Amino acid sequence: MIHKLLVGFVSSTLIAFCGCSESPTPNSSVSPVVNVEDDDSEMNAAIAKAQETLSFFENNWKTMGSDAYNLKFAMPTSDGELEHIWFTPIKIEGDEITGECANDPENIPNLKLGDVRTVTRSDITDWMMIVGQKCYGGYTIRVLSEREPDVAPPLEFVDPPTN
Q: Element (H or E) spanning 103, and its range?
């Protein structure tokens, strides 16, 4: 099975929080979707790390003064695969997380930018909180940035503080 990771949101978020007035020139060689195999050990480790540290996001997303905060949901596609889509959280209550779709999905016909969906914690595959030039979380973005440094966001990736 191939996982599809939607990465276009990262660049649009950076434009918004950096205060840039112009969109970057589209590069036809860079797709907003990256296909990742199920057995990709680096990506699986990144998703596991995001799950392990999700409590930091849950405890701080409303109070940390973030410039941007988002969660990545694994959503089933029409062809039986998973597409990982960024959502802006609206409500986190117990095991359920409700968010507004922050991307245009590639292969989920009944989901579009701005739609609201509720998932469980186990459906979360990444999270990020951007404060200034620092990105807390963003573990899948880190993996993709190492693989494609030319399109990596200009952020310092940091792990959440440990207690």
A: none
